[in-house]
Amino acid sequence: MNEVNFFTPDVVAITPDAVSKVKNLQADEANPNLKLRVYVTGGGCSGFQYGFSFEESSQEDDTLICSEGITVLVDSLSYQYLEGSTLDYEQSLMGSRFLIKNPNAQTTCGCGLSFSI
Description:
Elements: E1 12-14, H1 16-28, E2 35-42, E3 48-55, E4 63-67, E5 70-74, H2 76-82, E6 85-92, E7 95-101, E8 107-108, E9 114-116
Parallel strand pairs: 1-6, 2-5
Antiparallel strand pairs: 2-3, 3-9, 4-5, 6-7, 8-9
């Protein structure tokens, strides 16, 4: 008899750099319960823009993505725009920031915070 295995991928993959930064921010705030919320809103130069915030609790319609001891929250509206994306954290001469690499985006602006589908 064949056994069927189901695999449900995370809506957003999280890089080790992003995990490390969230852990560092949790330590700086002395609050291991902080969760990173990743969301999409209308606006920006390309139509939609990414947003990031820290919260202690999740909402009823949130998808929780747990990775290496951190939790990322994605609300039900943002889910459709972020599915298949990767959350990263980069540091460069221009500064440091969380970054979304979104294969669904048709165009993005120069700063990488705005996109269109």
